[in-house]
Structures are given as structure tokens and as C-alpha cells.
């Protein structure tokens, strides 16, 4: 196990009715907020009214900026920065999923920066100071409610890039599993793929002696695998929704990555798909991850055997470990398909003709490698996209 520092300062307020506490929680930080949200689901579900009532009851003023799209755009972030500056807003409240939270994080950093906020995402500038961000989470998926990341799309060229900094960890995250009852089944499934990907990115590591975190990863994966079919059958199963919601935060708040080096190639390979085709990140991962696994499993067959046996209960073939490893990969793909996700590029709506372009963008013109478990160059990534056709 490697040395590590683990600090996660996000306060989690979890359970039924917790959104009513939002005003009280915000007030501890500020008397005025930017209320940031997405395309309108929070208005349809009535969450917007409850949040606004709680803010008003606690004397918190707010200015609104809705309209965050999935795969959040830098243009709206620029608008948010302008509003925060003009209105002297000291706090951002994100009510929604990963897209809203990531947009809020980007605004929070941009407010203090004189240049263009996209500079952070292309490594031209480093985030040094941020406004505090609070969250009311409506979808378990990205894990952004307690993560260091923010992922943004630039419409100019359709680039999707991420920034990671401890400064991005939200001050609090209010998580009521009941708020996820209204999720369309497809979004629930996309969330599942993303959560599982966050765990698997950490699981496939070259770091030795990490059995404790292996076990945590396996338990978290099993929690998703067992509970997703339950909520697809019965969207209002509180117990299952709650397991999924908490597991999704743990999947990406860095606990499972302690003492080990994660991979993250599949995320980068996926980001090229959601940048160009504007598909849900989780759907892209359901296509990319099994293909990545097929391409790299020979690098450490015993680790893939462990994954197959412990996560998918595959019977171990002691004479043929590769067969066991491949079964685990197959089961992963079958699971994604069984919950209604695309598992091939074609099902995702991606064209073969653009594979080279995506691989090129992913590796900055073949000048950088991607991933840690196996370092991949442009040619490798082309092969992975090709495997994702099947
Ligand atoms: O926009 P509205 O109308 O709110 O609808 C949203 C959106 O269409 C809908 N939705 C959310 N909660 C709902 C609901 N509909 C009904 N009832 C509810 N309770 O779901 C759709 C998807 O929302 P979005 O926020 O895009 O989902 P998600 O949380 O999956 O976020 C995806 C984004 O997060 C990034 C992804 O790349 C993608 O851009 N990621 C961020 C990470 C991070 N910051 O740490 C890590 C991840 O790996 C990921 O890359
Ligand atoms: Zn993800």
C-alpha cells in the first residue's frame, strides 16, 4: 500500500426530508447565494419550491441561474461568473446532479480569476481560490457532491476536460434518496455505470497489498449490482435508493482510492464520446469500460480473476484463469445491457469514421499516454474504440 493523505471535508446530510435543512445550512456560510440548477426537473418535482421556501425561511437571498445542460457548457459558466461578480454573491448552491455541481464548481473558481475560466481546464492556469459551494443532490452518479473534480465541455471545438483540486470539494451535500424516485430509468442506469466505473478505475491498479480497499471496492460494486435492478422494478424503493445514493458518494470521494494508484483511462476515452456526441457519461462508460478490460486484462490476469470471482460470483476455472477473467468482463457488459444501457459504439450512436479523431484528441495528438494500469497511446485507444464496436 502506498503512503496517502485522506481528507474529505464535505459534510453529508443524508436521509428523508433533508432538503428542508438547506436554508439553515447555507446560512452558516452566507446570506446570499447563486441558486444553480439544470433543465427543469427540480421544478417539475417540486424540489425547487421546497429549496426556495427553506432559503426564504432562513432569510437567505438568492439569484437564480438555471439551464445547466448534461455535459455542462463553459458558456453558461461564464454567465454565472458574471452574475456572481455583479451581484456580489459569496456562495453557490447547486441543486441537481453532476452537471449542475460541476458547473457550480467552475463558476466558483472563475469568479476569482481574471482570465477565461477555460484556462483551468486546459492547464493554462491553476485554481487558487474558490467561492464555497453547497449541494442538494438529485441523482447518484458522478459523485461530484464530495469529489475534487469538475468536468466541463467547451462548445468551441467540443472539448470535454476536467480539473481536480481539493478546493472544489463542496462544503455540504444534502442527499435525500426520495429525490431520486423521479429519475427516468435510463438516467438511473447511466448513474449505475458511472458509479461502477469510479470503483473499477480504482480497482484495476498496479499497487500491491491493497486487499482492504479491494474489499471495499467489491462491496460497493455489489451494492450497485444488487440494488439497481430493484429500483428499475420499483423506483420508490427507499431502501434500495438509499444504498445506491450513499454508495455513489463513497465510490468517488477518494476513500476507495486510498493507498493505491487508479487507472482512469476509460474515463478519458469516454469523455471524447460525450464531448462529440453529447451522450450521457454513464452510457459512454458502459460502452468503453468492457472494451478497455478486454484490451488490458492480460496485463494482470489474477486481478481480473479476482474481480470475476468476488464481484460476479464467476466459478473459478483453475486450469484456465484467462477464461475466468474473460467471464468477469462478459458479466460486466451483460449487466450494463440488462439495465438498458448501450454496450456498443453503434448503440450509442457513435460513428466509426471518428475513432481516429477521438483517439487523437484523447492523447493530445499522440503526445501523451492515458491510464496508469496500462499506459495507452493513440494506437491502443484506436484498438479499444474498435473493440467497443462489437
Ligand atoms: O437538467 P435536469 O432537468 O435537472 O435533468 C437532469 C438531466 O437531464 C436529470 N435529473 C437529475 N436528477 C433528476 C433528474 N430527472 C428527474 N429526477 C431527478 N431527481 O438527469 C439528467 C442528467 O443529469 P446530470 O447532472 O448530467 O447527471 P450526472 O450526475 O450523471 O452528471 C454527469 C456529468 O458529471 C460529469 C460527467 O462527465 C457529466 O458531465 N462527471 C463529473 C465528475 C466529478 N465532478 O467528480 C466525475 C464523473 O466521472 C463525471 O465525469
Ligand atoms: Zn465518471
Describe the protein's architecture and organization.
The relative contact order is 0.11. A 6-stranded parallel sheet has the order 1-8-5-4-2-3, sandwiched between helices. Strands 6-7 form a two-stranded antiparallel sheet. The protein has 2 domains: 169 residues, Rossmann fold; 203 residues, Dehydroquinate synthase-like - alpha domain (Dehydroquinate synthase-like, alpha domain). It contains 16 helices and 8 strands. The chain is globular and about 70 Å long. Helix 4 packs across helix 5, helix 10 crosses helix 11 and helix 11 crosses helix 16. It is an alpha/beta fold and 390 residues long. The structure holds 5,6-dihydroxy-NADP and zinc ion. The site of zinc ion has 6 residues, from helix 7. The site of zinc ion (ZN) has 6 residues, from helix 7.
Strand content: 5-15%
Strand order of the largest sheet: 1-8-5-4-2-3
Question: How many separate structural domains?
Answer: 2
| N-to-C series of helices and strands | EHEHHEHEHHEEEEHHHHHHHHHH
Count of alpha/pi helices: 16
Give the N-to-C terminal Cα separation: 37 Å
Q: Outline the low-pLDDT stretches.
A: none
Using the alpha-carbon principal axes, give the shape. Answer: globular
- Beta-strand segment tally: 8
Rg value: 20 Å
CATH topology of the largest domain: Dehydroquinate synthase-like, alpha domain
Question: Overall mean pLDDT score?
Answer: 98
CATH class of the largest domain: Mainly Alpha
Instruction: Identify the CATH homologous superfamily of the largest domain.
Output: Dehydroquinate synthase-like - alpha domain
